[in-house]
TrEMBL record:
The keyword Ligase belongs to this UniProt entry's keyword annotation: no
The UniProt record lists the keyword Transferase: yes
InterPro entries, sorted: Acyl_CoA_acyltransferase, GNAT_dom
Taxonomic superkingdom: Bacteria
Keyword terms of this UniProt record: Acyltransferase, Transferase
Protein name: N-acetyltransferase family protein
CDD domains: NAT_SF
Species annotation: Streptomyces bauhiniae
Location of the N-acetyltransferase domain: 8-173
A GO molecular-function descriptor: acyltransferase activity, transferring groups other than amino-acyl groups
Pfam families cross-referenced by the UniProt entry: Acetyltransf_4 (PF13420)
Length: 175
């Protein structure tokens, strides 16, 4: 349950979620610099991304839905940090929340479930890149134990301007 009383279910993403996940992501593509994709995706184009996140293993896709309406409120992922084999124990994480569901604890629920799942996997570090400014995302990541590593200055260009990306790290097997 999120603070406004909405019952929320967090579960693995499925192909049935593809249209809703694509629409949610496309909002961030067209309206924000949170992602550096410049062109919206079709569900067909986004399908390989969805299929690259099985229900188990280090690369997950978790979806939060309203239990009454079954509407997708957000999703969190972990995926490869880099393609070379030695990077396998590291993942890059992200969370996207529907614009009308932000600030209600959906991101916290998603990340809580994602890191609980990753605790059972052979994952050593999680990394997250956060386009600046994005105070809400920085606070969420810090709440989950991420620490700031550094900032790539003006690393991406979108909407006619350059954007910085701050990089964060979470130690997953620090115990």
């Amino acid at each position: 349950m999120v603070p406004n009383g909405t019952e929320v279910q967090v579960r693995p993403g499925t192909e049935a979620d593809l249209d809703a996940l694509t629409a949610l992501y496309n909002h961030y593509v067209t309206e924000t610099a949170i992602t550096f994709d410049l062109t919206p995706f079709t569900p067909v184009e986004r399908r390989p991304w969805l299929l690259s996140h099985p229900e188990d293993g280090p690369h997950r896709l978790l979806v939060a839905t309203d239990t009454d309406s079954r509407r997708v409120l957000g999703y969190a992922t972990s995926g490869p940090h880099r393609p070379k084999a030695a990077y396998a124990p590291s993942v890059e994480t992200s969370v996207y929340v529907a614009p009308d569901a932000t600030g209600r604890g959906v991101g916290t629920l998603l990340y809580g479930a994602l890191f609980a799942a990753l605790a059972e996997e052979d994952v050593h570090r999680a990394f997250a890149g956060i386009t600046q400014p994005n105070e809400a995302s920085v606070k969420l990541h810090e709440r989950f134990g991420f620490r700031h590593l550094g900032t790539f200055g003006e690393v991406g260009r979108k909407f006619g301007r350059y954007w910085d990306v701050a990089w964060y790290q979470k130690d997953l097997d620090a115990d």
